[in-house]
Design goal:
- There is one protein chain.
- The protein is of the alpha/beta class and about 280 residues long.
- It is about 50% helix and about 15% strand.
- A hairpin with a 5-residue loop joins strand 2 and strand 3.
């Protein structure tokens, strides 16, 4: 009697069943190794992003993660900041009232800021996100949460991207300042503000900051403001160009590149059809 048959008989199970279990265990071990390899680069990937990265069914990933205790570290608890009333009345919530959903890059941008404790004081990070591509198109860092901070992020975005059609924000005094609203008006950007006490209406930014602070990690060991700036820049670059966004199934930068390629292809196809029609008609 073979060893496998003897073990199966002792356990009271079918020998073929024992073989299947053994094969499954080997496959799980191999998948565990692949998951750990991904975690070297993407420490906070959960089972959904792991499934996308490894091209494996997410239920199988979830089972192996639970089996070997490979859960990602928990997200940091977010602290909410409530800014004072602005110097101008808040604009209407156009996104909500008109049912606007971002349908192409540059259609709708949203902006907000968060804060970090470093070197015995608060630092503030303002960001602007494209709601279609989920890409952080602009950002700035400062020691004060003022108009200069949020304008820095907007100018950063405008220096590298076309002017958006809509810009959405919360009712912080920084965003309701005359300087900010006048700039948007001069650029013909239609502004939209969340309702009072409704931060979820700027939910993309809220969710992004949870991811951002998690990926940024503890900053207490950094030695200078310059190192903090560099860490933030690297984290944002990782988010834009490497980290898979579960809704997009790729990173934001690649998603925008894919859209641009498809747009150019469609435009070329339309031009080709038009030229053929003109040739046939003799125009």
């Amino acid at each position: 009697m073979g060893l496998r048959r003897a073990i199966a008989a002792r356990l009271g199970v079918d020998r073929n069943g024992l073989y299947k279990v053994s094969k499954l265990m080997a496959a799980d071990e191999a998948l565990k190794t692949r998951i750990l390899a991904v975690r070297e680069k993407h420490k906070y990937y959960g089972h959904c992003r792991l499934a996308l990265e490894l091209r494996v069914n997410h239920k199988r990933i979830q089972r192996v993660v639970q089996l070997y205790g490979l859960q990602a570290p928990r997200k940091l608890k977010q602290v909410k900041y409530h800014a004072s009333a602005g110097s101008r009345p808040a604009p209407r919530n156009l996104l909500l009232e008109l049912g606007i959903i971002a349908s192409y890059p540059g259609h709708v941008w949203a902006c907000d800021f968060t804060f970090l404790w470093f070197g015995g004081r608060w630092y503030y990070v303002a960001t602007v996100i494209d709601l279609y591509t989920r890409e952080i198109v602009g950002w700035s860092m400062g020691t004060n949460h003022d108009t200069k901070l949020i304008l820095g992020a907007l100018y950063d975005g405008l220096s590298r991207h076309n002017t958006p059609m809509y810009l959405h924000f919360d009712r912080g005094s920084e965003y309701l300042s005359g300087q900010h609203l006048d700039l948007c008006e001069s650029l013909e950007i239609m502004v939209s503000a969340s309702d009072k006490g409704s931060p979820w209406q700027n939910g993309h930014q809220e969710r992004f900051y949870g991811t951002f602070k998690q990926e940024l990690g503890p900053v207490g060991s950094l030695q200078s403001e310059g190192e903090l700036f560099e860490r933030i820049a690297l984290t944002l670059n990782y988010y834009n160009t490497k980290r898979i966004h579960t809704k997009l199934k790729t990173n934001p930068h690649q998603y925008r590149q894919n859209y641009n390629y498809q747009y150019i292809t469609r435009l070329a196809d339309k031009t080709e059809v038009r030229d053929k029609v003109l040739q046939i008609s003799g125009s």
